[in-house]
């Protein structure tokens, strides 16, 4: 029971007495006990024992099994709201005198006590990381427990404040980075799996590779997000050669293009707190400083929603596809459709046109691009630069996008303009050839 | 006009076009323009140009003269509240259905738009420091402009979040600390002035001196608060010898007592965001680790309110002072009362008793000690340990406390208990002899 | 031919012209060319192009195949001695006037030009590391090429100066050490192989493990020597449990003994330039500071020469072994002699006595212990503390020492005394029980 | 007597016993005792107590008064030479068989034991710094004690090895540099005095100022040499404006010229161990990287030998000066010769011609330029670029060079070539106009 005794040790004898834990022989093992402890933390005026109690709550939560944790999350969502009586009084006061001061009082009265609780938990040693992990649990339960939404909103509100970009620090990750951070890069790589330390070394050590991550002062050895970069002579049209094992690296000085070929979020508990845009911009600036000969900054990105969208279009007789095109695309239903290379060439040509149309016309109900990766990069101010067929021949690549990948271009001089066009007018910023492709008739 | 052109350069041409600054030849010189720019910042959905606009607002504010700045502060306080219609609707919804979700919506609707504005300003490069300085301005105007209070509340609310203790980093300050930080120590020392670099060296370099400061990741080279420490063999009863120029330093290994003889806040714009308590505790721990032979951690503190309180008591015929005591204390009205050393001895003895009484019985309307320094240290969990007469013979020392200083004792094993006693029950924790002194009859 | 073009690039066009390399299209591919280049480097008064030429020589040497390199080494040994005429003149002058000044001139004249050459090579970027590797080559050839000895002496003389202990820096190696250094720890571990990164983590991350290495400012990311430490409650008598995969780590605070269970030199080219003694002493001091409860610092060391020595003794009928003992030890010739545990117990008891005798009486021609590990630790001032049988049951352990391992004790208060006893009087410092064991009759 | 007891403490009781210091109650106070201790250090085979004894010798030396120290230096010079008998034997062996091995033995035998002594002293904590200071003493005595030369040679030999450029590290010095280093910059500035911390700040903080220093790993907080740089738009022709208090700094981005206006050696004990050349080259490279718009790197240097040389020329009737020129220059004998501005203009014109002649024709007996600053910069590969009259109007400037200063140009692409021309052929590399000036007739 070493963990239990650790926990007990973490709340000093005196602290425990002060908070009425005197009798407990073991830490709380039931959700109700954790919730009770949370009420204690919130109710005390003195803060001396606060961090110890906060630590105890977070430890006890972690000791619970999954149903126990869910029960705590539901307790926190259901209770810990604003004080009803106080809020009613503030409403009445505001309605009598809608002054800035009364509005401010109302705002304070309407704040769920949950927020203050989260702030106090955050003061425990390693509290921030534990709260990020608690939200990770929460997000897993949210679809089935919509009542957790209020707790999630409070976490997002506070995380946005604590993780505001002013606190983020970009660091280069390379082969001289501490091993305890590198092992997290291996673990968190989400796009193109890193198999082992040798594979990692191949991503970091050659002079035509770069990797950068964001860190936060309170999550010291935990990267928040990282991006892997390949330096190349030309904009690449396929992922295979970029991550192949063999090959002589390009001299950094001969590179003209920086390719962002993998962006991975590390903390699922920070979902929705966006850093990606900022990271890419900072890395572009860093690379420009280091290698002034670089002229072009692009991604090589997957197109996760394409195959699904196309499947639907192929069934729509009144859609933009001609009958013979629909017939040609029937080949896609067989896994080995690229075996007949002549036909594959024809299909690729058609796929390029379909993809262009997919990006420029397929929209969500909110009039944003259907493709989530497109939403991310266009939202950052990038331009859809080029569509590449036969670019990802892995099984996953064929399944989700029939092998299509695209390049998004980051042009620092245009990023703001593009971003505004997208954010204000929902414009899809794309290179001329892509636009033309989308308008082509079969 | 180099500053002006700097400013114009800081908002890139494209950003300025985007935010409708196209026509301006010079940055806003009027409060109204700054306010207008603030509305622009708040209204835009796109965030690409955000940091540039935020930077421009903060620069423009700084360019204004004092009346101009006040006007901006008043604009921000008067406007930028919650949206009235939205708030009324949220109230109605909540009254119809007082669910957590509706309460959350109400809370959001009641948030003054000012808070979002401050958050966006904070994202500008060096934005945090500029906001701290803006609050510095605000505090100077607050007494005469109570309407600024709502803005102050919003700043305090956000500063408390950004400056929460999880972000604070303690650093030792010594003679190998960068000069740009040391010059701030000289500038900010508030208790016992540091005259020049040689004087500073005497506070830092001898092996019986220590200095520690809190830093914050977004205010890199700006100490927030610092404490100066002298290592001694015994608890000191007077300040003079501690800060004298001459004298051989004590070998650190021979020290048994660490004396906190000066604590200075550096950022007036952070007034009310308390760090002092935490700093002292961390320094105690750090010193214990480095010098395990240290057994005692005390302050040598001024008693700023004592003379004023005593003057009143001396006039109160029905008070605790006997007639002959009041007569004896009449001597205090002459500046040179210590010249007659026999009488001074008698007076000191009486002063000690009065001071004990002052600490234990003189209270504010909120039932807290009248002495502000006592409130700080008792609130931190320290104990009032000893009263020293003839301890500060400087003019200021004689004027504010007739030469009396006190030691507060920080006993890590008791800090929590003391703090709780004070915070929960307003108990004045004092050493036995001090208590006895307070109860003595003349 | 990228390496070749790299090399050419490393000598700038202008440098090459200056040193008469104008015509070469490719770097020297023959030993004679390298030697010629070395003469060029040595002959020039101007030093501007010096580092470029030095770099070119070291690169060209590295490009040669093994026979080519050997040829260079022999050239450097055969030529590049002192200038004969100058030396003869200095001898004559000294014999005429044996003053300090003439002796100094003679010393200078007798210095092989080789030393100046090595000094100039050392000024090339990364020159020191390349020279260490050149000596690595040399040592491999030395047994068959005794004429290389003069070059080796010069290298040792200069290395001793450059790697004097004043330059050595001790650094803790742990799981947050940069990966490029950790991979060298994996590669260089010479005593108990580290299989992979997971195995490495087990040696570094648990709180009862420590690792320290020496670094040198000119060999930045290259450890020179490192020692692995296990923290234990008792002096360990067997290696198996120490490096086993499973097991709960001991809380560092509960440890009383620090066990140096593996010391590995990383640079064979620095053989004979001793750092080990210093490293152990510094680590002992470091550990004492960090964990004041540690009372005992020991090794758990192999006994590489024991089995071989014993084999000889077993054949010597007039030796210290009784006949029945010799018969008992015959069992050792079978690999599975430990299978019969009762007999093994008897054998172990006898082995302990033999080992004690081995340490205390078996000597080299120079009257030093036959066992090389004993020479190292006794030379450092350690004491032979305890003999452990059945301590290393690996095949290698059984083969070289019939499973025997020993503990050497490092007692800081005794190190100097022990060292002097050993260095001045060749005394074998051993604990009482070990001495008694050595004197026991069968 | 705190220093004395410190010293005694530094040699542990056991060490003292081991080296026969048992009886001493106080450290050696006589030169003879120090010398005896040095013999002890040299004679012992065991090295355990070595560093303690070395430390004791260096401390005892420092405790001596000036005559005592001189006596030690003379002892070290007179004794501690090579072992006579061993050297004679080595000579005989070499004469019988002049093989590389015998030459090596001869070299070893001829080495003064002094060198080994210095090496062992160097191993004491802070030993290197103390040896540098010992040589400082020595250099002061050398002119009157030529017998110290052998000791100086040995120190130079070893310092050259320990301070070889591979160990030197360049660091930028700015206003965020630790105060303990900055105070040394104030102390060591040799060319243009730094009056106080405010003056220092003016040299470091403006964005058109830079300062760089060399450090060595064993002299951690001691700069070896530093150079102060001003960034300007044009090559400056006078020192006054460069170091004036007032003035708006130039934006770093607008600078085209980097001016090295002050180079100061910090350690007189390292005189003759040259770093200056290397520092300038590294700083040029660093500045080029940081500010690619810089095109020109020059010094603004004094001409210390000019006035003295000219005084001689003015007396030489058969020299290059015409009679009327000699008459004109008579004005220089009055301190206020610049008061008559018309005449001053004429004189300046003539001075420029004289200075050009001085640089190009005035030579030492070794055929090197008479001007020591010229020897330094030409030896580094710089070119004499321009002669500036009225450039240093301080009293010192008028006295040593009638106000003349010069610019030396560092052109990285030409440095090697220039250096070789100077080093191999004693060529004075100068700009065309300077050469023409030197050839002009009056």
Automatic annotation (TrEMBL), chains A, B, C, D:
<feature type="domain" description="Malonyl-CoA decarboxylase N-terminal">
    <location>
        <begin position="80"/>
        <end position="163"/>
    </location>
</feature>
<dbReference type="InterPro" id="IPR035372">
    <property type="entry name" value="MCD_N"/>
</dbReference>
<dbReference type="InterPro" id="IPR007956">
    <property type="entry name" value="Malonyl_CoA_deC_C"/>
</dbReference>
<dbReference type="Pfam" id="PF17408">
    <property type="entry name" value="MCD_N"/>
</dbReference>
<dbReference type="InterPro" id="IPR042303">
    <property type="entry name" value="Malonyl_CoA_deC_C_sf"/>
</dbReference>
<dbReference type="InterPro" id="IPR038917">
    <property type="entry name" value="Malonyl_CoA_deC"/>
</dbReference>
<dbReference type="GO" id="GO:0006633">
    <property type="term" value="P:fatty acid biosynthetic process"/>
</dbReference>
<dbReference type="GO" id="GO:0050080">
    <property type="term" value="F:malonyl-CoA decarboxylase activity"/>
</dbReference>
<dbReference type="Pfam" id="PF05292">
    <property type="entry name" value="MCD"/>
</dbReference>
<dbReference type="InterPro" id="IPR038351">
    <property type="entry name" value="MCD_N_sf"/>
</dbReference>
<protein>
    <submittedName>
        <fullName>Malonyl-CoA decarboxylase</fullName>
    </submittedName>
</protein>
<feature type="domain" description="Malonyl-CoA decarboxylase C-terminal">
    <location>
        <begin position="166"/>
        <end position="411"/>
    </location>
</feature>
């Amino acid at each position: 029971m070493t963990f239990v005794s650790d926990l007990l040790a973490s709340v000093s004898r005196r602290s425990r007495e002060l908070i009425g834990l005197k009798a407990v022989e073991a830490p709380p093992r039931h959700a109700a006990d954790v919730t009770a402890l949370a009420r204690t933390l919130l109710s005390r005026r003195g803060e001396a024992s606060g961090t110890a109690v906060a630590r105890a709550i977070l430890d006890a939560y972690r000791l619970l099994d999954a149903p126990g944790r869910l029960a705590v999350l539901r307790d926190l969502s259901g209770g810990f709201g604003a004080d009803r009586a106080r809020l009613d009084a503030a409403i009445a006061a505001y309605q009598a005198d809608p002054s800035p001061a009364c509005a401010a009082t109302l705002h304070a009265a309407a704040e769920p006590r949950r927020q203050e609780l989260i702030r106090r938990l955050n003061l425990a040693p390693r509290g921030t990381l534990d709260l990020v992990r608690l939200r990770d649990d929460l997000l897993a339960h949210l679809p089935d427990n919509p009542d957790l939404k209020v707790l999630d909103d409070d976490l997002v509100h506070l995380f946005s404040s604590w993780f505001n970009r002013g606190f983020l620090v970009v660091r280069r990750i390379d082969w001289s980075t501490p091993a305890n951070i590198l092992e997290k890069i291996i673990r968190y790589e989400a796009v193109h799996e890193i198999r082992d330390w040798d594979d990692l070394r191949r991503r970091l050590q050659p002079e035509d590779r770069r990797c950068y991550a964001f860190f936060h002062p309170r999550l010291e050895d935990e990267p928040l997000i990282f991006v892997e970069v390949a330096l190349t002579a030309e904009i690449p049209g396929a992922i295979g050669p970029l991550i192949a094992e063999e090959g002589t690296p390009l001299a950094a000085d001969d590179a003209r293009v920086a390719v962002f070929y993998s962006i991975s979020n590390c903390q699922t508990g920070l979902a929705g707190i966006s850093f990606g845009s900022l990271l890419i911009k900072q890395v572009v600036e860093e690379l420009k400083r280091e290698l002034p000969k670089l002229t072009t900054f692009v991604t090589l990105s997957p197109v996760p929603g394409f195959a699904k969208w196309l499947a639907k279009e192929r069934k729509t007789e009144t859609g933009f596809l001609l009958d013979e095109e629909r017939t040609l695309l029937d080949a896609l239903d067989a896994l080995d459709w690229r075996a007949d290379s002549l036909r594959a060439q024809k299909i690729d040509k058609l796929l390029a046109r379909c993809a262009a149309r997919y990006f420029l016309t397929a929209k969500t109900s909110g009039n944003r691009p259907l493709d989530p990766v497109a939403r991310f990069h266009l939202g950052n101010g990038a331009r859809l630069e080029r569509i590449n067929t036969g670019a990802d021949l892995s099984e996953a690549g064929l399944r989700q996008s029939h092998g299509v990948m695209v390049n998004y271009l980051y042009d620092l001089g245009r990023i703001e303009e593009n971003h505004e066009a997208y954010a204000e007018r929902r414009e899809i910023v794309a290179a001329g050839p892509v636009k033309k492709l989308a308008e082509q008739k079969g």
